[in-house]
Structures are given as structure tokens and as C-alpha cells.
Design brief:
With 235 residues, the protein is mainly beta. 6% of the residues lie in helices and 50% in strands. The protein has a single domain, classed as ntegrin, alpha v. Chain A, domain 3 (Immunoglobulin-like), CATH 2.60.40. The termini are far apart.
Length: 235
Amino acid sequence: MRKRKYLIGATLGVLGALVVSGTAMAGSPIAHKITSTVSPAKQNPKAFGRASLHLITDTTYDNFAGSPTSKEALFRFSPDFKFTNGNLPACSQSTLITATTTAAVQAACGRSVVGQGFALVNNGAAPFTSPNPVVTLSGGPRTLYVWVRVANALTQVLTGTFGKRTLDVTGLPNTPGNALTKFDVTLNKKKTGKNSFYFMTRCSKKKKWVTSETVTFHNGQALSASTTQRCKQKK
């Protein structure tokens, strides 16, 4: 039977080309999951208060051989969520793309940092077994940059654009067989003004927060997921 060769790591890897031969069909994304956790969950029913937002997104593939990678991630947030850039300085994408460590990101744009976390390539399968550091930074009033250092060899900077209640993340690379399958990121209680923080929330009448995400892949496929967290009202 004809052998197929897949080049793995040309863009994500700088670890050398890894050739996989076989007769299996190209892999496909088959499921997506999102988890959103706000802390503290007890908030004022009307006024927005400071909080942190912990987001975990996770895509499952049947296999990774030649599999399509994600192209765009569109988040839709509860009307009880508010993102306020305030007086944060904007870090430039050109500055971030040259940073090779989280320490370098902090040194160049420490005042712009709003969160941190990690990402997995191919769900941590070899050769990408180690978590890859993630830093999120303000790129301006409507821009959130997601800095990712893959396998300590390649820097990726994704661009998030805020809408009224959305965050549209683009710039994910087209690297078949090498997918950023999981992001685990927390937006901190970052002060952005006298009475404002980067992420703020309230607990209105419904007493619940719904967050959803639609991921579109480079082959045109799309997967969606949502998560709900109950909140408590302050008296």
C-alpha cells in the first residue's frame, strides 16, 4: 500500500522534521470543550466588581496525522462580563514576536500583562510533551495579544479583538498535524484605573454566567461548546 509522509514540526517544531508514514486517514477534530470559572462568584447584582476569569478550551482529535489545525476562536460572553482596558499601555505585536521567554515578555511589556497560563500541542503527545507557556497582554482598547512559546523553539502571537460581548482570536498557524489543542489561561484581577479592572463582572437576575466558543479550523470545519457557572448576589 502507498505510504504517506507527513512533515511534522516545520513551523511549530524547529526540533527537526519528524516524518510519519502510514496508511491511516488524516485526523479530524471530533469534540470541543470550554470551561469558564469566575472568582469570586459572589458579586453585586448591579455594579460591576473586580474578578479573575479562568478559561480552559480543549479540542479532541481522532488522531493527529495530517489533521487540520484551528484557524479562529470566537468567544461569546455573558452580558454580566465587562473588559476594561483603562490606562494599560499597549504592547506591540512586533515586540512580542521577538520575545523567547516569559521573562523577556515581562521585561518588554510587563505593565501590559493581564494574564498567563499554558497551551498543549497535540494534547501533549510526543515530541510536544511539555506545556507551552502563555502570556496575555493588552494591545490597545480592543486588542488582546496571546503570546505562546512552543517547545521553547518558536514564538506565536495570536490576536484577540473585543466586540460588544465577544472576543475573536485569530492568527493561529496552519500547521497540519500539529494542533494547539488546549489553552488554560487566567485573566488576573488587573487594575486598569481608579475604579476599574481588566475583567469585571456582576451577578444579575438570572444568577448565572454563560460563556460559549466556536472554533473554526483551516479545513472549514467548526465546533462549538458552552459552559455555565452559577453566581451569588451580594446583599
